[in-house]
Every structure is written in C-alpha cells, then in structure tokens.
Amino acid sequence: MNISELAARAGVKVSTVRFYERRGLLPVPSRTSGGYREFPDDQIARVRFLRRGQQLGFSLAELGELTALSGQEVLLTGDIARVGQAKLAEIDERIADLTRVRSALAGLLEQQCIDPNAACPLVGALGGEPAAQPA
Questions:
Q1: Which fold has domain 1-56?
Q2: Cα separation of 135 and 86, whole Å?
Q3: Which of 76, 84, 97 is closest to 53 using CA atoms?
Q4: pLDDT reported for residue 44
Q5: What is the pLDDT of residues 21-57, one digit of tens each?
Q6: What are the residue boundaries of the structural domains of the chain, listed by start?
Q7: Dihedral sign for Cα atoms in the order 73, 76, 77, 82
Q8: What percent of the chain clears pLDDT 90, i.e. is strictly above it?
Q9: How far apart, in whole angstroms, are the C-alpha atoms of residue 34 and residue 91?
C-alpha cells in the first residue's frame, strides 16, 4: 500500500507517516519502480500504536524503545512494564505540579483588589511583587 493509503487506514495524515519514518520509528519501506513507498499491511498497526502512544503522553524516544522491545522475538515484559511505570510516575509528578500551581492561582484569585492605588494580587504576583495579605 502507498503512503496515503497507510495514512488513511491508520487515521493519521501523510505528514505524520513521513515524520515517523524520518525519526526511524517505521522501517524503511520498499519502493516501487516509480519510486513510491510501498508499506506492508502490518505498518497500519504500528502507526496506530505510535499515534496512540503519543496521545497517552509517551515521547517519540519512549515509543521507539517500546517498539524495539515489542519487536523482539521474546517480549521482555519487565522492560515494557518499566517504561510504562516510568511514564506513570512522570504523569503523577506533572499532576502534582499542576495541583500546586492551581492552588497558588486559586489563592491569588481569592484575594480582593481592595486598594485602587495598588496592583491586584494576581497582577502583583505576576510582576514579582509579594501578595498583600487581607486585613
């Protein structure tokens, strides 16, 4: 199948397939006598795997590692689980960071803009000024 058919069947754009190919995440396809790429049918699942992995937050490097691991004759489930656990820990860390940021922003928004001659607490905090404490 050609690149546009692969892209359509995998639910991505042609540019996505080319990107994955440039990054080495897809094997180099054979070419027709006219120079067109010719992909085997099993590449549909691989492109879907890569796209879904990105949607789940995996980097292309991590997906490359998972692809390499899953391509082995004997799947090393411990290695695959290790990559998945590392991604989960990273996501948990990002959630904790976002929770802290949300809490700080909510605290600033709770403070009233009382003094017309002073910046509101949110504007002051963005400008590096310490937030005034309510009286």
A1: Multidrug-efflux Transporter Regulator; Chain: A; Domain 2 (1.10.1660)
A2: 46
A3: 84
A4: 93
A5: 988 888 888 888 888 889 999 899 889 989 998 998 8
A6: 1-56, 76-135
A7: negative
A8: 33
A9: 46
